[in-house]
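ok posting inputs for the iron/sulfur cluster job
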Amino acid sequence: MSLDISHLENEIIDQFLLDDSKRPWIIGFSGGKDSTMLLQIVWRSLLRIDPFLRQTRRIYIVCNDTMVENPRIVKFINSTLNKIQKAAVDYELPITVHQTMPQLEDSFWVKLIGLGYPAPNKFYRWCTERLKINPTTKFIKDKISESGEVIILLGTRSAESSNRAASIKKHAVKGKRLRKHQLQNAFVFAPIKDVSTNELWQYLNQVSPPWGGTNKELITLYRNANAGDCPLVIDDTTPSCGNSRFGCWTCTVVNKDRSMEGLIDNGEEWMYPLMEIRNFLVLTRDNPEKYRQKERRNKTVSEHLWGPYTFETRAKILRRILTAQKEIQNAEGVELITHQELVLIQYYWYRDCFFKLRVSDIYNSIYNTSIDMSKQQEKFKQESDLLKTSCKNEEKDVELIQDLLALQKTKTLMIKKRGLQSDIESRLEQYLEVEKKK
Ligand code: SF4
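and the output
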């Protein structure tokens, strides 16, 4: 029997026409089952609206790439996003697709290998905010500054978990479809919140995506990975990531990455080196006496609190990543760490201790190349000496200025300086905040 979801489409159409302030819609899309159903229903609803009226509102589809997404899922999502953008043009829908990413200085590898952050666990989960929340929040804030207010459409469902159900209820504005978002001037619309998991799968099985193809690949991915999905995390109603869903392949917050194991068991053996790296990260995190420094970044030493990874550990992790990358790059075309990340890691290594090994030495030994980073090393050293001499009466300013320089460098590496000023401002604000508390 086919599933009747016409009431959901009617609600979406009603909301679209009711709100004549034409606040843009931002659809959070993770490529998973919930956001796929949401987008299909929104798309079909839009087609039922008069073509002139539907051009009056901008609709942004936003998908976040943490830079350590499971590469198998990345391939699938990228191809889906391309299809969506092309079909939106063909159907003349006011939809554009946007991908957000963490700032380079916040990337998983820059933090872990560059600065020595230990692999995250549930008590020290430094990654979610940096890799997921901040990039999408920035996108939403930009749209709020452009338009005053926005409506965010999410595929959250009460049936997903009791926590989520309670949270959805807490934020609901009685008698209204929209609920307030934590960000000022943003509202959330969750049209499929009452759809059960069975209904969702029934729908995806029966209704093909309007942007082309079928949902077969999506369904197979879920089946092979025994997984839930890792939704776009943009407020506290979205469950935390991890927990047997398509999250980052590096995720050490979950005890076991069942989705990656599931994919390997079902024929994606090339992912085996990734699983080994992930398991090595768990080992380094759980054995601080072997892999971490005694001294913390603030130069204190305490019996129970360990400092960052030693440089030897960071070099070991980097070596493993590059080795795995070389192994799978030819067959699968997967890049595990970017060139920009490598350069910034090197910058932090110079800055923190002039570690005898260079990133380029490790890279050369694996790829058999002869990249020479000694000139940059000399430049960084001169810069650092100059800074220390100039700040000899205000030593605490050295670190702040080095941070600001690192921000500037990352923007240069990314070849765009957009956002540099606001990043510098927020770093200065953080600094002043800390100073005030002293
Ligand atoms: S999936 Fe894991 S590693 Fe990725 S952001 Fe979430 S908790 Fe962190």
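notes: Residues 171-175, 228-244, 413-417 have pLDDT under 50 and may be disordered. Residues 66, 120, 125, 127-128, 131-132, 230, 241-242, 247-248, 250-251, 253 surround iron/sulfur cluster (CB under 6 Å).
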